[in-house]
Amino acid sequence: MTRSPQTLSEADRRLVAGWAADCAEHVLHVFEDAAPTDSRPRDAIARARAFSRGELGTADEIRRRFVGGVPAAEMPHAAAGAAARAAGQAVGVCHMGAHALGAAGYAAKAASLAATDQPDAAAAEIRWQLAQLTPEIRAALCALPALGTNRSGPLGAGLLTSGEVGANIRRLQDALRDDGAR
């Protein structure tokens, strides 16, 4: 069986899971301000961090990947929904590394939707995300195919390739490529 280039090695998934958790946690307040008693996104981020530390196994997390998700009908508003999706994408890194870019893309969308009076909120969030990268995490993210060029995972056709999330991921990947070319 040929593995998707969006999967990444287990070691790389563990690296990028911590960064994805950082991205999701950076905007978690957007969800928690709207739903202070709902711990599902925080729990997902904690699982992503535990996976990054080697405390959770890949197979178990693949089986649990939909546990603790927040259904769209339960989202208090769009910004909170984007923050919850960032957490869901972060924990999804356990089975496919490309979800790290989904976590970052949704986090930037949450920042943008939460600060409608700040037109550069998404760009500022992406700059923050890029500043959190270590050389090893940057290399792992650079190993992922460009958004929309590989159909065998979340970076293929689907939610991550369109709209604001897709634009955010493209900005991230462009910045990663530009930094790698220097």
What report would you give on this structure?
The chain has one domain. 62% of the residues lie in helices and 0% in strands. The protein has 9 helices and no strands. Helix 1 packs antiparallel against helix 3, helix 3 packs parallel to helix 5 and helix 6 packs across helix 7.
In short:
The chain is mainly alpha-helical. 62% of the residues lie in helices and 0% in strands.
**Cα end-to-end separation:** 36 Å
Ranges with pLDDT <50 over ≥5 residues?
none
Give the CA-based shape: globular
* Main sheet makeup: none
Count of separate structural domains: 1
Measured as a percent range, the helix fraction is 55-70%
Q: Strand-residue fraction?
A: under 5%
How many E strands? Answer: 0
Structural category is mainly alpha
Fill in the keyword field for this structure.
globular; single chain; mainly alpha
Topology, pairings included?
Layout (H helix, E strand, L loop, with lengths): L9 H17 L1 H7 L5 H13 L5 H7 L13 H15 L6 H16 L6 H11 L3 H8 L20 H19 L1
